[in-house]
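Task: fold both queries, return tokens.
Query 1:
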Amino acid sequence: MKHLKVFVVSHEKSEFGVEWMRFEPDAAVPDLVRHVPHVAFEVADLASELAGREILIPSSSPSEGVRVAFIVENGAPIELLEFTDPNHPARRQRRKRGTSKPTYPSPL
């Protein structure tokens, strides 16, 4: 995402499935996102998940087929992603054996 001055190393290149983000000094990113690691969750309806939350970065589309926003929860940033294209190449669903229903980790 060079146009945003954000550089991402795909989770697929990490032994632990971590997506690494780095920011140019003049990237338009809040200090909380720049300095505090965040988690990301896929959501079915980004607009409804944002209702009543403290929004750090409003909803935007950094690439075709995906919308993202950041909220603040207990002083930490959380990224929420909605894939508007169900076949988006970055979409990875963890599935239980023997079922086609996606499962996601529960926040602590």
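Query 1 returned. Query 2:
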Amino acid sequence: MIKRKKNIVSKRQVTPDQFLGEKLKFSATEAYKLLRTNLFFCLPEGNDYTCPTVGVTSSVQGEGKSTTSINLAYMLAENGKRVCLVEGDLRAPTFNSRLKLNNSVGLSHILANMEADLGNVLTNTMHENLWVVPAGDIPPNPAELLGSNRMDQFINALKEGFNYIVVDLPPITVVADALAVSGTLDGILVVVQEGKTTKRELSDAMQRLEMIHDKILGFVITHAESARGKYGRKYGKKYGYGYGYGGKRSEKSAER
């Protein structure tokens, strides 16, 4: 009896850092460059925005907001901007493992007034123009810390040394942290994963953001088949934000 040899296929290990910075594939790099260009139009440097501060969030966990935050900051740095990337997701930090940072001191220590200064929490990584503030230890009261006066003071201190600030935020519908810090930001990008995010989840997130009159810059579609895939049509028409950025609503009200 002839035994068939097992067809052993070695699966290539995919690590999170393969989708970051200079390791991105060409198509992904071009997509993030387009996002960078749109951001320049939305929040141009100048009198109104001396140092534009952008929050990146999502409806639920796992849609790619942290990846988007890191790559947007990297692309801004590639353009010659001095960029500070702040890990504002104090409940589930990922920068330490993904960017190989020492996360023993970070944003939570600054906000809790634990004698940590700015020089101790800033880490230069990935690019000479990119500096990262990791989350630090997980605090018992993230929303209170992010919505405190110390957060405003911290962001204002960063503005003195940077051209752009990108803040990675927790998902909108999971916790209230992103809403607490929104007043410190110039605008928010909402990450939507094609094939995962539901209409109800996105609708809930949008209602919460609109309730506090936050400036929604637009959507970033992850895992999309094309730039004008089904999510662009479905959600663009639903909320009146279209395919671009700027957060300008159409005359038609959002569907309920």
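Both queries returned. Flag for query 2: DSSP finds ten helices and seven strands in the chain.
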